[in-house]
User: Fold this.
Amino acid sequence: MKPVSKLGLWIGAFIVGFTLFLAIFAPLLVTHDPFAQDLSRRLIPPFWMDNGGLTHPLGTDQLGRDYLARLIYGARISMLIGILTMVASGLLGTAMGVIGGFYGGRIDDFVLFAITARLSIPLILVALAVVALVGSSLTVVVATLGLLLWDRFAVVARVATMQVRTLDFVAAAWAAGCSRSHILLREVLPNILSPLAVVATLEMALAILLEAALSFLGLGVPPPLPSWGLMIAEAKDYMFFSPWVIMVPGLSLAVLVFGINLLGDGLRDLLRTGRTT
Amino acid sequence: MKTPLIEVRDVGQRFRVNSGLLEKKRQVVAVDGVSLKLMQGDVLGIVGESGCGKSTLARIILGLLPPTTGDVLIDGQDLSKLDRKERARLVQPVFQDPFSSLNPRRLVRDIVALPLHAQGDVTSAEMRKRVDTMLERVGLDPAMGDRFPAQLSGGQRQRVAIARALVLRPRIVVCDEPTSALDVSVQAQILNLLAELRREFGLSYLFISHNLAVIEHVATEVAVMYLGRIVERNDTASLFHAPKHPYTKALLASVLTPEPGLGIPETGLGDAMPDPANVPPGCRFHPRCPVAIERCGREAPAITRVGNGITECHLITSM
Amino acid sequence: MTAPLLEIDRLDIGFGPLSAVRGASLQVRRGETHCLVGESGCGKSVTALAVMGLLARNATRNAVSMRFDGQELMGLDEKAMSRLRGDRMAMIFQEPMTSLNPAYTVGSQMAEVMLRHRGGTRRAALDRAAELLAKVRITSPGMRLGQYPHQLSGGLRQRVMIAMALMCSPELLIADEPTTALDVTVQAQILRLLADLQKDLGLAILLITHDLGVVARTAHHVSVMYAGQVVETAPVADLFANPMHPYTRGLLSCVPVPGKVRPGDPLGSIPGMVPRVEHAFAGCAFRQRCDLARPDCAGTIPRRDFAPGHDYLCQIEPAALVTA
Assistant:
């Protein structure tokens, strides 16, 4: 095994773990209320710039809210949406893929049709339309993304199930008199989880980016909730004079997505080598 | 007359396969009109080349594949009417590849316990005891129960597969090429173990192999399959010493026994390889048969009784 | 006696901390088949790959010498090696599908070998290919040239591989389990073909197999490998009549031979498993599984002569083994 990929796994795990830590313990970590406005203290630069100070380590935004507090609370939204969407789409997609791959025939034709239909839908457009029609809230964003991002889970689960289904240990389980549900859940499913774990990280990163995109367009989580996408959107008017207001959430987003992808790549290598030895 | 333990009556298995985007669906005849009996305590060997339908037949007898036509009776009961638990108590498999036949995500102990678990009425203490006894009986340390299959050698894995097959004390074990993936020295150990277990538990085996030396060693009766049909069946000694069908003769002639100085045999077989998607008319062996006559390409030979066995060949019938 | 075409003197191959081949020596003469027999992991395939210069990059290769027709192969650069490969020495593998390119026709793959080593026109190369397909007894060779590997049966593919290996009239053919994936009837046909080609062309064949039946019927000389060492070398009749090394004896007793072992009787078997061999491994690797093991089997093991051309690697003297 290459030590490089191991390093990537650790870096990725650290970034994701740290963000998760921030998200969970946000109320204990911040010294300022992320919603408290103070127009007299707006657009204070972060501590490394002139005029910056340690009262507001990352400065304040255009409404005088503490930027560090908003960033940490924003991590909450990003992680929440990322994880919930991943779980929802993962359950839906895996169930469809496994059932299609396991039963074959008509059922599989239907699953394949659903996957094709889903792939022909332009993601961001439908998400925009739904949010515009129903109105934006955390629940709506998670539900919409969850219903849109299951396709890759289904494709991977279906192919993996078709491969595992033909292996002799599944035949042996049938011959042992096991029930269909036992074979599906205990024999087939555990053996397709490793490729799905990789898909899960990819989808989580995608969900976080999509939420940011929706929020940037004003259709994600409603203000004043501090989402990173929303922070970028609000900052874009000030970026020429106060570049940090767009750099801080933008960089955070990029680092988190990078970390999740590193974690996914590392997991893939880890699970692949774990199999052959 | 005693009821046979397995009675296969005129069983056929056809598959439809897509051969290409624009081509028609083709029909593959895997098994065609096969009848056979396995008596209590016997070992029925099935030999044939790849694609002859022997593994399909094994899956039909295990109840994993409902045949397109015909019936299978196990101990006098219709296999298709047995529920899965009853079937599991009668017949169990041992497969060829000890790497794909064990679930890599489960402990050896759980793999062996699977048939007991599926019965649903065995307590976990009882299960543990029976698994340990079985592991020990197949020559494994019960401590190996707490390992994963990847931590075992090929021979040890095949022992685990045998323990799983025997833990319910079935009456029949279907062995589908159980030693083909193993090294010579390990193959001998597994064959010896299977022979001991048969005597000890009063088992009957359906033993499928392409290795004729192995079949001659283990089987009491042998059926030779070619393109989905049994072309000859007889007790082992008669089949190996006085083969009737030209295919059986060619097959036996091709065996390379480890005896130096005998050279490499001439099989006399043509190059037309058997293709189950394209079964020739008449006798299905005639394109490769060294002694085929004109009639062989025209009409299929009938099953003829010869001594204790049967065969299908015009040259035998007309004699 | 003529000099051997291939002469390997004390070859060592390692993969990281593990030793795959230890001091293996063997000789292959023109017009003869030398069988290298052993169970999986004994080092027989890597020995063949080492001769061809095809070892994986993480492998280390050392030898006192390795000569092909008098030319030293150790230290030969990749360019010189690739000139020899496919030209004067060729190799065929167990699964022909993995060594044939599925994207090219049989004809263009065969012609390519010729053009790379010998040049000439494509037309001439294709004619040579057709001639060789006929030689390996493939019917209608002209049509086969235009076919793709997946359109051929396993037996046909192996014949194509053999024909392709013969394109440049090699002097040495290395065959790694060439018939293991084939049915018995096809196996007999392919082995017969190899034997006939050897007679016609004076080929030296190094045949790697685990099948003692194949060894008995095809070999002139045999080397038995165990845990990376050649434990016994002998002319084929001598090996089967007087196996000396306890491992060879064990191996021979494992196969059911009609007339020797009664059906149903237990077969001989070798208890235990092959040990993990690291570079510092000392003594006989078979001693834990050997009935005749003695305390001095943990020391240096001598190579003993039993008869001309028949030697074995064991602590025990021939006289004591014959009566054992």
Q: What stands out?
A: The mean pLDDT of chain B is 90. Chain B touches chain C through 43 residues (CB under 8 Å).
